[in-house]
Amino acid sequence: MLRIAVPNKGMLSEPAWNMLAEAGYRLRSNPRQLVVEDPDNDVELFYLRPIDIAVYVGRGTIDVGITGHDLLLNSGTEAQRHMDLGFGASTFRFAAPNESPIASLADIEGKRVATSFDKLVHDYLVRNGINAETIHLDGAVESSVQLGVADLIADVVSTGTTLRNAGLRIFGDPIMRSEAILIRSPRLDEHDERLTILSRRLQGVLTAQRYVLMDYDIPVEKVSAAVAVTPGFESPTISPLHDKQWAAVRVMVPKAKVNQLMDKLYEVGARGIIVTALQASRM
Ligand SMILES: Nc1ncnc2c1ncn2[C@@H]1O[C@H](COP(=O)(O)OP(=O)(O)OP(=O)(O)O)[C@@H](O)[C@H]1O
Ligand SMILES: O=P(O)(O)OC[C@H]1O[C@H](OP(=O)(O)OP(=O)(O)O)[C@H](O)[C@@H]1O
Ligand SMILES: [Mg+2]
């Protein structure tokens, strides 16, 4: 069985569970369950803290896992980034009090930086030739400056609300941009068949989320012009209609572009344009 580590709590957990459910895997039925066997799909799910997932996968005791890219780099383990999962986007940034003179990377020299991601911060400072002390805190890092244990912080920023409420402002470039990723053990072959099936299923979920099916009718002589607007993945399906002057086209298009594409197709001469959500896909 392929052993898969899944976040048991935190921001990444629910989207990860939803994605696995969409991909056909069996989830736990109560929050006290730590392991779920799913013999039908030849996998075993281990519910673990997101921060620990790279440790297990890096050591090869678990084959693959879902975690944040920032957590992977911070872990310093040999787990490999295998696939981006399109949720849990965040940036990791420095922030200092609104009234503080700290406003650039160089100003961090000699200061105390509070963070939960020590290695990420330490490596970034070393790469940039800055000497500073990192102070490890497990959470609520934003309070550390006001409480006097640090001069600035480095933390996950999503909407920026927590920073604002704590009287902090970001400065400098993001230390990194992160999103949820599938990681794989260094002991698991990149082309392992069980991993290929899992990746293909997850990719299918991403495609079903990002694409829709578009159908339209188009005068036969305008098919080429319409296909140029909606080329699809491989090639659109063109079917004859009872009226020989017209054809029907069926094609996948990016959900985010649906309205622009319908405007263009209408201009080209398409009519009866309809859009249908995808339930599932395997590309
Ligand atoms: N708004 C957000 N707040 C915190 N983490 C986020 C956010 N958006 C995405 N993430 C990602 O979630 C991961 C953080 O997971 P973590 O284990 O810290 O859980 P958490 O959501 O912070 O919950 P907790 O701190 O209670 O454990 C990181 O990869 C981070 O980039
Ligand atoms: O920019 P925002 O949208 O405000 O989100 C960022 C905040 O969310 C996270 O905290 P979390 O909820 O994980 O609590 P923690 O500090 O205890 O980890 C992160 O550490 C920031 O504090
Ligand atoms: Mg957190």
From TrEMBL:
HAMAP family: HisG_Long. The keyword Cell division does not apply. Feedback inhibited by histidine. The keyword Lipid biosynthesis does not apply. Catalyzes the condensation of ATP and 5-phosphoribose 1-diphosphate to form N'-(5'-phosphoribosyl)-ATP (PR-ATP). Has a crucial role in the pathway because the rate of histidine biosynthesis seems to be controlled primarily by regulation of HisG enzymatic activity. Its cofactor is Mg(2+). It is found in: Cytoplasm. This is ATP phosphoribosyltransferase. Belongs to the ATP phosphoribosyltransferase family. Long subfamily. Its EC number is 2.4.2.17. It comes from the Bacteria. It catalyses: 1-(5-phospho-beta-D-ribosyl)-ATP + diphosphate = 5-phospho-alpha-D-ribose 1-diphosphate + ATP. GO terms for cellular component: cytoplasm. GO terms for molecular function: ATP binding; ATP phosphoribosyltransferase activity; magnesium ion binding. Residues 49-203 form the ATP phosphoribosyltransferase catalytic domain. Pfam families: HisG (PF01634), HisG_C (PF08029).
